[in-house]
Design brief:
Length: about 575
């Protein structure tokens, strides 16, 4: 055993015979420890090819002994840079020189030398030594260890290169790098999971990566998540985590194609809602949150990926069990809940357990489009009730009376933050009731979301609740039939479409559609709806459309040249509008 400094002291304390590197090299450590192992005796012992006559003669001449196992841990450069108190000089001193040199030498000569770079490798090395009667390690293990060593070397150098390129912009010797995009972007990742394919079956291979040196922030407890499942899970988790933190209530989201079809909080259901949503009256708060999220737009939620902000109990699992869904991400699962969920989809239902304390290790995020890399600061700007303080309308919030409205505005704003832009969201009673996503025109977002609000509201109409649907229809078929009935326009159906629609009703005949006056009166009874937008309203037409579905509360960024006209429109409809000053674009 040959070692340096503190490691040598620890070995001696364990009664293991160990020589200092200085004894091996005949040279003392020097330059404040900068030079310890950088010596031909060390690197010759690592790098020489056993059995090569020229190499054997050289090591014999110079008295170099073979080194068969190199165990090291590199200086913690990442930790030094991440420290708020670290100076430029401190970071530079934490750039390891001798360690990476030995690491690369041992990895290159892996046919003869094993290299250990992490403590969690030690057990495998010990087991391999035992399997070989203590005579050495196997080539298979040495090759694997070499691959891991080169990966460590790559990410270590990448971290240094990225940091130093930015630091070099500073003219002051001791000034730390400013917060700006790095001049050199060098990133490495370790494959954590193979995926069946990417967005489409022809996009193979596909895989999920963790940042090198790290692990995924979630564990796969069941199923095999797909590429889009992971995108949905990571976005949906951020939404529910932020909504829970902002409101203090359990939150749920129903995601499809990286946008929420619905999201909600654990606000208790009233009797009318339980009837329309077809649920029992003994739901837990988390189960209630998912019922509300799913029922925002149950047609769009078909095959959703679910996010839940709190531990999944059996009651919530039973609600999930009856819905057609791809999977769920949550911070934890009760054992009985997990048993229920593992049985879904023939055992293929995806269950992801998210680390609730996880925060990405760096402030910036990166992506690549058509071979071009982009970088930006991660959108970690949370949205809370405090962001509703700048009310610009004549009518203002009344303390206590409008607390539910503020809660709904916060929820709707957070939903916009995680919805493909342009986006708006309507909320009512702790539940999103309409999302307009991914439209180039903002008023089209409002129109799209308002149409969803109308459908949601009309599902509560007594005629719709009491539709004579055929016995035995699947749950989703009932949902689809009621939504199609609400949409009306039966006379415009083709003969084939009408026949198929008639077939889902008793007596194979759809009842007469709702009269326009009846629809208008029912929608007019809707009130106290909250509307949030991911950016400013450029024209008053957004407010005019919103007023048709009972909107009384609005949150938007403000800053348009048309702000005065938008405020005037809100005043005409007796709305309260807060200009938050926060744009929430998401792509």
């Amino acid at each position: 055993l040959v070692s340096t400094g503190g490691t040598a002291r620890a070995l001696r304390a364990a009664d293991l015979p160990v020589a200092d590197v200085a004894e091996l090299t005949g040279s003392p450590e020097m330059l404040d420890g900068r030079v310890k192992t950088l010596h031909p005796t060390v690197h010759g012992g690592i790098l020489y090819v056993r059995g090569n006559p020229e190499h054997e003669a050289a090591v014999e001449t110079h008295g170099i002994k073979p080194l068969d196992l190199v165990v090291l841990n590199l200086y913690p450069f990442d930790a030094a840079v991440a420290s708020k108190d670290a100076t430029f000089a401190t970071c530079v001193e934490n750039i390891d020189i001798g360690g990476p040199s030995m690491l690369r030498g041992a990895a290159k000569n892996h046919r003869y030398v094993a290299v250990a770079t992490r403590p969690d490798q030690y057990a495998a090395i010990l087991a391999d030594l035992d399997a070989n009667d203590g005579l050495g390690t196997s080539y298979v293990l040495r090759k694997k260890l070499a691959a891991e060593a080169f990966a460590l070397s790559a990410r270590y150098d990448a971290a240094i290169a990225s940091w130093f390129a930015t630091a070099a912009e500073s003219s002051a010797e001791e000034e730390p790098p400013k917060e700006k995009a790095p001049l050199l972007l060098a990133r490495t990742g370790s494959k954590a999971l193979d995926l069946k394919y990417g967005c489409n079956p022809h996009q193979t291979p596909a895989a999920l990566y963790a940042r090198s040196g790290g692990t995924l922030p979630f564990a796969v407890l069941n199923g095999a998540p797909g590429y889009i499942n992971v995108l949905d899970a990571l976005n949906a988790w951020q939404l529910v985590k932020e909504a829970d933190a902002a409101t203090g209530l359990p939150a749920a989201a129903s995601f499809k194609h990286v946008s929420p079809a619905g999201a909600a909080l654990g606000v208790p259901l009233n009797a009318e809602e339980r009837r329309v949503y077809d649920v029992a009256d003994d739901l837990t708060p988390l189960a209630t949150a998912y019922v509300r999220a799913r029922q925002a737009d149950p047609m769009s939620s078909f095959g959703d990926f679910v996010a839940l902000s709190r531990n999944v109990d059996a009651a919530t699992a039973m609600v999930l069990k009856r819905e057609v869904s791809d999977g769920v991400v949550a911070p934890s699962f009760d054992s009985d809940a997990l048993t229920i969920l593992k049985a879904k989809k023939g055992g293929k239902f995806v269950c992801l357990e998210m680390d609730p304390s996880y925060v990405p290790g760096e402030a910036s995020e990166y992506r690549e489009v058509f071979g071009v890399g982009l970088a930006q600061k991660r959108n970690d700007r949370g949205f809370t009730k405090a962001d509703l303080g700048n009310v610009v309308t004549k009518r203002t919030f009344v303390e206590d009376d409008d607390e539910a409205a503020k809660r709904d505005l916060v929820l709707a704003s957070i939903v916009c933050k995680y919805t493909q832009s342009n986006s708006v969201a309507f909320a009512h009673n702790g539940q999103i009731v309409g999302v307009g996503a991914g439209q180039q025109s903002r008023v089209d977002c409002v129109k799209l979301a308002a149409r969803k609000v109308r459908v949601w509201r009309l599902r509560f109409h007594e005629t719709v609740v009491g539709l004579p649907l055929k016995a035995g229809l699947k749950r989703q078929d009932k949902v689809n039939a009621r939504v199609r009935f609400v949409e009306g326009g039966f006379d415009a159906m083709s003969a084939s479409e009408r026949a198929a629609f008639d077939a889902v009703f008793e007596d194979s005949t759809v009842p007469p559609e709702l009269a326009a006056s009846d629809v208008a009166a029912w929608i007019a009874s809707l009130d106290d709806v909250a509307l949030a937008s991911d950016a400013f309203f450029p024209f008053r037409d957004n407010v005019d459309v919103a007023a048709t579905v009972g909107v009384k509360y609005v949150a938007q960024a403000g800053g348009s040249v048309q702000d005065d006209a938008v405020v005037q429109a809100c005043d005409e409809y007796s709305m309260i509008m807060a200009c938050t000053g926060i744009r929430l674009f998401h792509h």
